[in-house]
Amino acid sequence: METRLDALFDPDRVCVVGATEREGSVGRAVTHNMLDSFAGETVPVNPNTETVFGERAYPDVASVPGKIDLAVVVVPVAVAVDVVRQAGEAGIGHVVVVTAGFGETGSEGARRERELREVAREYDLALVGPNSLGVLSTGSGLNATFGPDMALPGDVSFMSQSGAFVTAVLDWANDRGLGFRDVVSLGNKAVLDERDFVEAWGSDPDTSVVLGYLEGITDGRAFVDTAREVTAETPVVVVKSGRTEAGAHAAASHTGTIAGSEAAYEAGLEQAGVLRAETVEELFDTAEALAGQPLPGGESVAVVTNAGGPGVMATDAVGDSGLSLASFTDETLDRFREVLPEAANVYNPVDVIGDAPVERFGAAIEAALADPNVDSLAVIACPVAVLTFEELADEVVAKAAEAGKPVAVCLMGGDSTREATRILNEAGVPAYFDPARAVRSLDALREYAAVRAREYESPTTFDVDREAAREVLQEAADRGETRLGVEAMGLLSAYGIPTPAGEVVTSPHEALEAAEEIEGDVVMKIVSPDILHKSDIGGVRVGVPNREVYDAYEDLVTRARNYQPDATLLGVQVQELLDLSAGVETIVGANRDPQFGPLVLFGLGGVFVEVLEDTTVRVAPISEREATEMLDDIRAAPLLRGARGRDPVDEGAVVETLQRLSQLVTDFPAILELDVNPLVVTPEGACAVDVRLTIDPEEL
Ligand code: ADP
Ligand code: MG
After folding, report:
1. Domains of the chain by range and CATH?
2. What is the CA radius of gyration of the chain?
3. Confidence band for 92, pLDDT divided at 50, 70 and 90
4. SS3 424
5. Residue 366 burial class via C-beta count within 10 angstroms: exposed 0-12, middle 13-18, buried 19 and up
6. CA of 688 to the centre of ligand 2 (A)
7. In the prediction, which pLDDT does 256 show?
8. Rounded to an integer, what distance in angstroms lies between the CA atom of residue 70 and that of residue 5?
9. How far is the centre of ligand 2, averaged over its atoms, from the C-alpha of 485 (Å)?
10. What is the position in ligand 1's atom list of the atom closest to the CA of 531?
11. Which residue among 156, 462, 584, 656 has the highest number of C-beta atoms inside a 10 angstrom radius?
12. Mean pLDDT over all residues of the chain?
């Protein structure tokens, strides 16, 4: 399928604006790289010279005869925007702006970047950068970068928000013989960003894995939607830096991105099916495994080793991963007993013992791979006199190909591993020193297999009373309030989220009337936009009998007055008393992330929420599957499922509440933050007992 970015990576004619022979200049490096490797025609543009490296130079893009597909801009920043405009006027559709001095340098630069974006929009330019190291593609030999190296050919495409990182990775990958299809230094992402490249590479038959080094995501929600479609076919793996607060700050000053909150990234990437690597090493380990190995059918892994210790290390790593140790069938155990000596361990991890020659090792590998309970295999070998790593490598390659199951190998040695590693890598089998890395790679394959198995599900749209919800928000806005409490319970009921019977009253007399409407004792709460945590000031009375309602009203108001004499008091809420003994107090909530938009939160609630921090987040709107996964995510999940002889709670009610809340915050951008704490869940259902929210009246 033809995409808008094809001509960026595979142009026929490219002009380098700012081409020069001047020693030490970026323009020289780009021109040199282009002339060195590009299969098409490279046209230098420079008003001050007749030729560059023997090629005829033109004074400006307008004077270049014929069609140009791509302009690479390496001119001084003062004229960069003009040059891009000229490229647009000349009908050039693709531009790479290498020139720096834009958004990354302060307000003048930011203004220039806005101008650049305007020009790109006017001429509908697919523009990379500015402040980009450039773009390269091994298919066409395009090397429009000022880095020292061209990449080796391969089927991994890589984008990086840091240019320096591109040169470092190329140097490192060339050393290891790792190849690339396309490489892009994203620069300031004034026009094209990570989403455009994920999309383009997703439909490129010659890209089998997409890798990214990202410091921020420009439009998180849109990225999730695009990446979700791509990852159904092509794996995407990302290192997102700026995870810690300090890291996030460095990233913001680096390329001018405001890093979104860590939880939002984690959720968004997970929902998009994007795998996340913790380190650069893991990024490329994962890429290698995905590019070379089949996907496993499940999470069971077998370990076959000739040494006990490394087998234990692998087992520990399995424990830290989403994999589990396979338990072999009786047939497999019999087969092991047949081919292994008495002293060998036939249970997982299988120890073939240090004196195993290649035949014995190979027989064990074959038996493990043949077991229907085994989805993937880690082979771990230490150097021993009776075995060479090369013969083991040949054996693994043959057996793995036969079985069609993913295999990762650990060759625990130095120089002696080199040739064997080459044999394995050539066959697409990853090889490492450290067992933990092998396990992590197999785990990434499992993770991606799970992504592939996902069925896309669009969020359910419930029948709700949107108008009633708007009225609740509008009334608060009309009162000039931006913080709402239990007086806004109607917002939840309008969206079908169950709430206890109750009302807000403004006199002791009304309180008693309200209490008499409700069977049994009641709960009474102070209602004030100025009091965030009602129980902290004694503003919640649980289990008030009717005869005490009158006094309780006076008492609550007095407490509020003592706490803050000028607090706005909207009254007292009289609410049905719920039996908490059979239920669990959970929290459901929402807030807004600058990059990802509305997020939905779920966790253990009540007074434990801050102490235990047992919560999980998703980018809204969420599907039923995503809501269900939120329940699985929290550590307290067993509590909901009936730990210690309790009845399991109504999980369906929680899942539905989460989805309804997701719909509410998606429908109303005016809701900046919202907490339902607690949402009491029992075997019979879910009930929102308390609510608190912050609104932006401008958005109503
Ligand atoms: P706040 O969070 O402002 O202190 P809440 O309305 O959440 O006020 O009430 C605090 C606690 O009181 C809840 O976590 C819950 O344990 C209890 N509670 C509140 N309302 C009820 C109710 N209707 N039935 C039973 N317990 C309640
Ligand atoms: Mg509360």
Report:
1. 6-289 (3.40.50.261), 300-424 (3.40.50.261), 501-577 (3.30.1490.20), 580-699 (3.30.470.20)
2. 31
3. very high
4. helix
5. middle
6. 10
7. 42
8. 11
9. 10
10. 3
11. 156
12. 93
Mean pLDDT of 576-581: 92
- pLDDT at position 248 is 55
User: Tens of pLDDT along 666-698?
Assistant: 999 999 999 999 999 999 999 999 999 999 999
User: Closest Cα partner for 594 from 217, 224, 245, 225?
Assistant: 217
Examine residue 349 and say whether the peptide bond preceding it is cis (omega within 30 degrees of 0).
yes
Alpha helices (H) along 603-695? 609-612, 624-633, 637-640, 651-667
Tell whether ligand 1 has an atom less than 6 A from the beta carbon of residue 544: no
| Whether residue 575 has its Cβ less than 6 Å from ligand 1 | yes
Query: Strands 597-604 and 584-593: what pairing?
Result: antiparallel
Q: Please, which residues have CB within 8 angstroms of residue 470's CB and are 6 or more apart in sequence?
A: 668, 700
Quote the ligand 1 centre to 677 CA distance (angstroms).
8
pLDDT digits (tens, 9 = 90+) for 228-284: 999 999 999 999 887 555 555 555 444 444 445 788 889 999 999 999 999 888 999
Q: Which residue has the higher pLDDT, 615 or 448?
A: 448
What residues does 237 pair with on adjacent strands? 211, 275
* pLDDT for res 254: 47
Locate the ligand 1 atom nearest the alpha carbon of residue 534 and give its number. 3
Length of the chain: 700
Grade residue 618 by pLDDT with cuts at 50, 70 and 90: very high
Please report the atom of ligand 1 found closest to the CA of residue 692.
Answer: 3
- Residue 551 pLDDT > 70, yes or no? yes
Our answer on whether the CB atom of 232 is closer than 6 Å to any ligand 1 atom is: no
Is the minimum distance from the CB of 534 to ligand 1 under 6 angstroms? Answer: yes
Within 8 A by CB and 6+ apart from 162, the residues are: 185, 213, 215, 254, 255
Are 271 and 619 in contact by the 8 Å Cβ rule? The answer is yes
Q: Report which protein residue has its CA nearest ligand 1's atom 14.
A: 606
Report pLDDT digits (tens) over 396-411: 999 999 999 999 999 9
Does residue 675 line the site of ligand 1, with CB under 6 A? Answer: no
Q: How far is the CA of 686 from the centre of ligand 2 (A)?
A: 15
Q: Ligand 1 mean position to 678 CA, how many Å?
A: 7
Question: In this model, does residue 2 exceed pLDDT 60?
Answer: no
Q: Is 476 exposed, middle or buried (0-12, 13-18, 19+ CB in 10 A)?
A: buried
665 alpha carbon – ligand 1 mean position (Å): 23
The pLDDT assigned to 465 comes to: 98
Would you give the DSSP letter of residue 345?
B
Over pLDDT 70: what percentage of the chain?
97
Q: What is the DSSP string of 78-140?
A: HHHHHHHHHHHHTT--EEEE----SGGG-HHHHHHHHHHHHHHHHTT-EEE-SS--EEEETTT
Confidence of residue 495 (pLDDT cuts 50, 70, 90): very high
Q: Is the CB of 520 under 6 A from ligand 1?
A: no
Tell me, using a 6 A CB cutoff, whether residue 500 lines ligand 1: yes
Average pLDDT over residues 84-94: 97
Residues 6+ apart with CB under 8 A from 656: 627, 686
